[in-house]
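[SOLVED] Need 3D model of a three-part complex

Original post:
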Amino acid sequence: MTDAVLLQAINITKSYAGVQALKSALFELRAGEVHALIGENGAGKSTLIKIITGAVEPDSGEIKLSSSTITHNSPRVAKQLGIAAIYQQPALFPELTVAENIALGLEQTGMLGRVDWRERRRHSAELLAQVGARIDVERAAGELTMPEQQLVEIARSLGAKAKVLIMDEPTASLSEEDTQNLFRVIRNLRSAGVGIIYISHRLEELPVIADRVTVLRDGRTIDTRLMSEVNRQALIQLMVGRELSAVFPKKEVALGDVALELRQLGSSEAGIKDINLSVRAGEIVGLAGLVGAGRTELARTIFGLTQADQGEIVLRGKHVRIESPSQAIKHGLAYLPEDRRRHGVILDMQIGANVTLASLDRLSRYGVMDFKREKEIAADYIRRLGVKTPAIYVPVSTLSGGNQQKIALSRWLVTRPSVLILDEPTQGIDVGAKSEIHALMTELASEGVAILMISSELPEILGMSDRVAVMHGGTIAAILDRKDASQQKILALALGHDLNEVEAQAKAVR
Amino acid sequence: MNLGRYKRELAAAVAFLLLLIMVGISAPSFFSAENLRDLAVNNAPTLLIAIGMTLVILVGEIDISVGSQFAVCSVVAGELAKAGVPVGLLLPCLILIGAAMGAINGLLVGWLRLPSIIVTLAMLVAWRDALRWVTEGTWVQNLPANFQWFGLGQTVGQLLIVVIALIVLVSFSWALRNLGAGRAIYAVGSDSEAARLAGVEPQRVVFGVFVLMGALVGLAALLNAVRFSVVPSNAGLGLELKAVAAVVVGGAAITGGRGTLLGTLIGAALLGTIGTALTFAGINPFWEKAIQGAIILAALVSDVALDRLRISDFGLRSKELSR
Amino acid sequence: MNETIPQSEIRIPQLVAPLRERLFPNNEWVLIAVLLVECAIFGVTGENFFSASNAFEITRLSVEIGLLALVMTPIIITGGIDLSVGSMMGLAAVVLGGLWREAHLPMAVAAIATLLVGALGGALNAALITRLNFPPLIVTLGTFSLFRGVAEGLTRGIENYSGFSQQFLFLGQGYVGGLVPTQFFILIAAIAACWWWLHRTSYGRSLYAIGFSAEGARYAGIPVARRLFFIYVLSGLASSLAAIIYVAHLGQAKSDAGTGYELMAITAVVLGGASIFGGRGTVLGTVLGLFAIVILQNGLRLSAQPAELAGILTGVLLVATILLDRLSRRAQAQPRAQTISEGEEEVRNSQVAVLSAVILAAALLVVGGNWLLIRSLRQDLKNGAAQPNSTTSQTNGHKPVIAMMPKAKGDPYFVSCKQGADEAAKELGVELLWDGPTDLDPAKQNEVVEAWITRGVDVIAVSVENKVGISTVLRKAKEKGIKVITWDADAEKDARDFLIDQATPQGIGYTLTDEAARILGNKGDFAIITASLSAANQNEWIKYIKERLAEKYPDLHLVAVQPSEGDRDRAFSETQTVLKVYPNVKLIMAIAAPAVPGAAEAVKQSGRTDVKVTGLSLPNMNKPYVHDGVVESVVLWNTVDLGYLTVYAANALATGTLKRGDKELNAGRLGKIEVVDDEVRLGAPFIFNKENIDKFNF
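Solution:
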C-alpha cells in the first residue's frame, strides 16, 4: 500500500424521492490497497458505488480521482477514467458470447468504430486464463452457470486495466477454489498499484484480503480502520450500532418423528442421484457443499420444481409423489428459494398479497377471497417478523433486502408447513436481519417444524444445524452430527475427499 | 464457425429449400429468370422494412406502425414529385421524412420509455386515419414522366431497386456484426441495464434504431412507388405483420438480443415467395393465409425441436425461454 | 424472538390503502375525465347524443369488442397478448353458419359446437404458449393468419350464410321491453363475471402474480402453465361467443367477421390502464377504455364530424394516457424504505417534463387545430348552403338532411361519387352527411346507420356492403319514418323505398363478359383479379360472369381467380404470376378499382403486347394505361352522376315529389331520369376507352 490517495468521495448526499440513502458520506481509496466497504443492506454501499461509477448522480458532494474532481460522471465517463466495477448480480448479456461480453465492457469502440473479432477472442481467452477459469469464449453467456458468469465478470474487470476496481460481493456464488483464485488475482492487482473497493457480507474473508475497512451505517460513514486493528465482533458492532446478544441462537429441542425422508431420490433433469436423507420434526439439518454440488437442485426436486425420476419421498410416513409446487404445499412442504428477488418475492406486488400468495386456497371459499382475513394475517406476520414498512399495500420492492427476505419467509410461515426448506436464507442480507432470521428458525424448530437449511456460510451451518449433510457431485457425501462437524471436515467432504480419510486426518491432527 | 448458433436461421433455410424443391418438381418454370427477377423486385421493399424491423426487434422493441408510415411516405413521394422536386432529390427527401416519423416513435419509446407496442399501435391508427382524412382516398396521379423508374427505364430501374436493397442488406448486416453501433444494438436488446453499465446509452440506441427504421420505411416506400406511374393512398396495408413475421420466421427472438439479417432475408424470401409458389403449384389461393400462419407456427416448433435435442444433456437452463 | 427486535422500531403498518389508490390503481380516473369531456362536447355538438336509446345503442355496438376486451384483460395482466381473437371470430362465424346450414344441425347445437371450436382454437394457442414456452405475440400472430385462412379456405371466401331464424336474430337485433338491446344483458353479465373473477377470487389474484413474475408465481405454488392455458382457452371461447352475437347482429356469417377487432380490443384494455408488461390492469379500466373509444366514434358520428378523427384522437389518447400514467408513477416513486428498485430509469426529470410537455402540446395543437378547422369548414358549408337556399325558395325553410354512405370512405370510386353528391347538395341547398366505414369491418355500416337514426336525419342513402346485415337496421330506420334509399348496391327490397340503380350485378357481370368476348374474339383464356376472396360484390359479379360464359361463350375460359385485397401492388404481383403460370391467358379482367392499374402495370412491364386488360375501375387512374393501349377498356358508369342523382332522388323523396308509381324524376343537369317501379335508373354501364376517357375527370 502506498500513501497516494487515488479516489475520494467527499460529502456525498443522495436521496431518492425524499428518502436519504447517503448523508455526507466520506470515502477514500489509496493506490495499491484493498479497501473493504461494509454495512448492513440499505446502509448506502450500493448507492455509493453507483455514484462512483456514474450510474447514479449525487445530489451534492464530489468525487475526486487523483485529486481532480470528476464532472458530469456517467458509466461511460467513469470507464474512460479507469473506474471499473463488478456488480453483485452479474451484468452480462445472455444472448452474446463470452468474448463479446468481456469485450463490450472494455473496448472504447465508438458507434462507428470497427470490431476486431479475432482480437476479442484472443484477449478474452487470455483474461479468463488469468482468473483460472476454463470457459469457451464462443459460448453464449446465458448458458453459463452463476459462478462461471461471475468469473467472466471478474475477467472483464481485470481487462479494464482500471485504476479503481469495485467488487460488489464477488465471492457470493463462488466455490472455495474459485475464491482462492480470485484472491490471488486481487493480490496481483494490488501489487500493480490498483485500488480495489471490496464489498462483502462475508466478514470472515476480510482479514484475508482487505487492508482497510470502512463501515457505513444509515448513509453515514461510521469509521475507517486498518483491517489488522479490528476483529469480526467489533465490525459487527460498528455495522449495527448495537451489540448482538448471541451470534447463533441455537437451542436444544426435543426431536419428534421423521417428517421428511428421501430414499434413493434422483433426477436426471436436476443432475442429482441416490439421495438418502431424513429430517425429524424439530430438527434443523444443514445442507453444505460447493456451488454446483446439487443442493439447490435437490431442494427444487423435493418441492416439485423439477421432476424426480428415481427413488421416493416419504412425508410423515406416507409415500407421496410431488410433481408441482402446489402439490408440495398441500403436503405441508415449504421452500424459501435462493434467489430472493426473482423467486422469493414478487417485487412489484403488494406486501400483503406477497405474504398470502402461497395460501390463497386457505384464504378463499370456493375461490372467493376473504380480504379481511388476508389483511389480518398479513399484518400479523409483518408484526411477528418485525418487517419495517409503513403499510401492507406498498410493493415489496420498496423494502430493504432483509425485510424482503422476511416477507419471503412469512409467505411460507402462513402455510404452516411441517417441513421447511431454506435455501441460503441469510445470503446478502444485513447482520441484524440475519440474526432475526436465525432466531426465528430456532423458534420454528421448537414448534416442531422440520428444517432443511442450505447454506454456503460454514459458520451458519455449524451454528444452526443439528446435523450436517454434505453434498458433492449431485449426491450426499456424508452426514455429520453437530458435535462431529467442523469447518475443515465439511470443506474436505465438499471437495470430494473420502469420509474415512477425512476422519483419519482429523485424528492425526489431534 | 459454430453452426449451432445459427440453427434458427438453418431451420428457416431448410423450410425455404423444401418449398423450392416442391415447387421445382411441380412447376419448374418457377425458376425462370423472369420470375425470379419479378420476385426480387416485388419483395425488395418488404425486405427493406424487414431489415429495419430486425433492428427494432433486436433491441427488444416492436414497430407496428410501419404500414401506415409506408402509406404516408408513398403519398408524400408522389406529391413531392408532382410539386417539381427533381427525382434525384426524392431519395434523400424521403429518407429524411421517414426518419422524422421514426424519430417520433423513437422519442416516445427511447426517451420516455413508453412500451413500443402501444406507441406504435397508436401511430398505426393515427397515421392511417390522418392520411385518409387528408387525401380522402384520392390517388396521386399525373406524375412527371421521369417518376417511374427514376426516369431510368424499366430494366435499369428494376436492377437499381434490387441493388439498393442488397446494398442495404449487406451493409447493415456487416455493420451489425462489426460496428460498435451494431454490437450496441445486440447489447441493449440482450440486457439494457447491463448495456448501460457497460457504457452504452440504451435510450440513444433505441432512438437511433427507430430513426433507422423510419428511414428504411421512407426508402422502401419510394422504391415501391417508382415501380408505378400512380401512387395509391392506401399502400402498405398489413405490411407490419408481414415484416414482423419475416423477422420471426428468420429466427430472431422477439425478446431481443438474438437474430441476424441473414435469417430475416430467408424469412422474407420464404413468406414473399409462398403465395407465388402456391399459384405455380396450382394450389387454391383460398388456403394461402392458412399456410402462412402454419409456416410461422412451424418455424417456432422447429426451433424448440432443435432446442430439445440439446436441452437433454444440459440439465438446468439458466434462462427460461419465454417472456 | 422479540428480544432481538427493539419494540421502538416497529410501527403499526397501515392496512387499508387510500380510496383513490383502491378505486383507481392505474389512474383510471383519467378515463372518467375523458368520458366526461367527450360527453360534454358531444352533448353540445351531437344531435340526440343524450338519449336513452343512444345510450343503449352504444352498448349494442360495444358488445362484441367488449367481450374480446374483457378476456384480453386477464391475458394482458399476465403479460401476454392474443392477436388471434378477431380471426377466431371469422372462423367461428363460418363454423356456425356451416354447421347450421350445410350440416342441418339445430341452431343451439351449432352454437355449442361453435363454442367448442373457439375453445379448441384457444387451446392451440394455449398449448404453444404454455407447453412449448413461445412468446404469445408470435404464437397468436401465427394463429391470426391461420384461423382467418382456415375460415377463408373452408368457405372459399364466398360462402355467406344467412337466413337465420327470428329467434336467433333476436339475440343480436332484438329489444327487451322495446328499448334495451338483447345483448346488453350479455355484456353486463360478462362485465360482472369478469370483475368478480379477476378482483374477488384467488384465481384472479394468481393471474396478477403471474403477470408480475411468472417464475416467482411458480415458486409460490401457483400452477402457472395451467392458469395461462385456461385464460387462452377462455379467450378462444369468448371470441366464438362474440362471433355468435355478431352473426345474430348482422344476420350473416362470413369469413371476414371480426376483421381488425383484435386491435380495438387491445386498445381498449391498454387505454384502461393495463400494463403491456403485465401485473397491472382492472376490469373497470377496460370498461372505461372501451366506452371512451365507442363514445368517441358514436359522438363524432352524431355531430357529423369525419370518422377519421376517431383514429387520430384514439392514437393521441392512447399515448397521452400511458404518458400520464408513467409520469404519475414517477412522481410517486415512493421508496419509503431505503433501497431503490434497480433499473429505475435515469432520465432527468427535467428532460421528461420538457419532452412530455412538447408532445402533449403538439397533440393538443393537432386536436385543437382540427377542431377549429372543422368548425370553420362546417360554417362555410352552412353559409355556402344557405345562399342557394334563399334563392331556390325551399318549402317552409326546413332543410332536408340527407345522410349518404359509401361502402368504404377512402375508396377512389366513392370519392368520385361524393363529388357529384356535393355538387347536387349545393344546388339543392340540402345538408349532406357523408360517412361510412374507414376499414374492412363489415359491421361498421350498421353502426353508422344506427347513429343516423339516433341523430334523426330525413333520408338515409346507403351503398350496401352486406345485403342481409344492413337490411334489419334499414327497416328500423323506415319504422322511425326515415326515407331509405339504396344506391350502387341494393339491400333487401322491403328494407328501402327506392334503389338508385346504375347497374345490377347481372348487368355488370354480363357487360364485363361481353367486353372480354369482344376483346378476345369470343375465344381464349382469361383470368380475374378480384378484391379480397371474401368480397361479396365481386363474388356476385363472378357468379354472373360464369353464368354468361356458360350460356353464351363456350370457347372463353376463366382459368384463375386471384385476390388483390384491394391493394394495387398485390394486384400487380398476382398478375405477373398469372401471366407466367398461364401463358395462354390473353386477357386480365380486374374487377376492383385499384386492381386495374396494378394489372395494367404488370402487363406493361412484362412486355406482353398480346395481353390486354379490362375491368371495373375509374377513368382517372387508368388514363395512362388506356392511352398506352394496355388497358383496352374500363367498364363503369359515371360515378359522379351516380352521387349527383342519389342526392336529387333523396331530396325528392324527402320533399314528397318522388313517390311510388312515378315514371320519371327531374334530376338537375341530368334532366329527366327514368323511374321503373321502385328503381331509379341511371342507365347502362358505360365503357370507357381511348376515344372517350379524357372527357371524364373522376
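Edit: The CA atoms of residues 188 and 195 of chain B lie 5 Å apart.
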